[in-house]
Design goal:
This protein is rod-shaped. It is 7% helix and 45% strand. The strands form 7 sheets. A 5-stranded mixed sheet has the order 19-25-24-21-22, with no helix packed on it. It has a 4-stranded mixed sheet with strand order 2-9-8-5, with no helix packed on it. It has a 4-stranded antiparallel sheet with strand order 10-12-15-14, with no helix packed on it. By secondary structure, it is mainly beta. The chain folds into 3 domains: 81 residues, Immunoglobulin-like; 94 residues, Immunoglobulins (Immunoglobulin-like, Sandwich), CATH 2.60.40; 98 residues, Immunoglobulin-like.
């Protein structure tokens, strides 16, 4: 009887040690699987300023099995570049650059790289404007522009076009793409013909921009004298006693008329020419000056442009005009 009691006591003691008998087995529970890694979708983000995206995270154990019920937290490494909500909604508020969003859960952390670039083109600013006028063939200066998005971020490597739409000017060293700072420039040269000059700048996403200027005549280069009603000969011939009109014309080196040039004509008493001075109009011509030669001879009328060394001589032959004969 003592032996049986000992056996009974031994079984009960072993059951207590193993905690696996009867009521004890039902009360025990297994610990949750340990989180080994966090997978985030998408694994990286490339956004434009103002864009947004949603992140989704999943925890896995050592065997790659999903660990359900794992709470996650989301944190931006630089909130000026991206911001993130507690649910993983990412927004790019407007600043460009690179950063990361850190996702934590179950004692593990995963980083999502984020790159934010400039958004669509929104505006063009003039950093350097051209001159409003220049002599024909001369430089109107450099035009320098900067393209940005809505948030003021520079737009690099954006294609641009330049086009001369009025005047015969030309562009020198005109860039066709913006640089890393969003800038682009060109040097504008006025055309060879005096008058209005118009240049147009264009790029996708922004309104075209026009620049206007005026090319005026260069300094006087040549003086020309011309007589009305003179015979087409060399030298030209005019009848004595008949009034002619003398006109002076001043042009620059490219034959553009020079306005407001003062022309001085020397008197020639022997030919009945009183001389005088007058100024050119917008067409580069002086008002007609009347001259009535008195006698037949060769006359050489000289003129010069004030404050220059430019002069001209008009040689003409004054002839007697035979009276018309009639029948009796």
């Amino acid at each position: 009887m003592k032996f049986m009691a000992l056996v009974t006591f031994g079984v009960a003691s072993l059951c207590a040690v193993l905690v696996g008998c009867g009521e004890g087995r039902k009360a025990s529970s297994s610990p949750p699987p340990e989180v080994y890694s966090i997978r985030v979708e998408p694994a990286s983000l490339r956004l434009q300023a103002g864009d947004s995206a949603q992140l989704a995270a999943e925890a896995s154990d050592l065997h790659g099995e999903a660990v359900g019920g794992t709470p996650f937290s989301f944190e931006s490494a630089d909130q000026q570049i991206v911001r993130v909500t507690p649910t993983g909604f990412v927004t790019a508020p407007g600043t460009t650059g690179s950063t990361e969003v850190r996702v934590a859960g179950g004692g593990r952390v995963s980083a999502v790289p984020v790159v934010v670039s400039a958004g669509p083109a929104a505006r063009t600013d003039v950093l350097e404007a051209p001159a409003k006028e220049a002599a024909v063939g001369e430089s109107l200066g450099t035009i320098r522009l900067r393209m940005t998005d809505t948030y003021g971020n520079a737009l690099a490597e954006r294609a641009v076009t330049w086009r001369v739409v009025q005047g015969d000017g030309r562009l020198i060293d005109a860039a066709t793409r913006t640089n890393a700072h969003g800038s682009v420039e060109a040097t504008w040269q006025a055309g060879r013909v005096a008058g209005a000059q118009v240049l147009e700048f264009a790029s996708e996403g922004v309104a075209p921009m026009s620049f206007t200027a005026v090319a005026h005549a260069g300094p006087p280069a040549r003086l020309r004298l011309q007589l009305t009603n003179a015979a087409d000969s060399e030298p030209p011939r005019i009848p004595a006693g008949r009034t002619s009109q003398l006109v002076a014309r001043v042009v620059d080196a490219l034959d553009n008329p020079v306005p407001q040039a003062e022309v001085i004509l020397d008197a020639l008493a022997a030919c009945g020419f009183d001389g005088g001075h007058t100024s050119t109009d917008a067409s580069g011509a002086t008002a007609p000056l009347a001259w009535t030669p008195r006698a037949a001879r060769v006359c050489r009328i000289t003129a010069r442009v004030r404050n220059t060394d430019i002069s001209a001589t008009l040689e003409t032959r004054v002839i007697h005009e035979a009276p018309a004969s009639g029948r009796q």
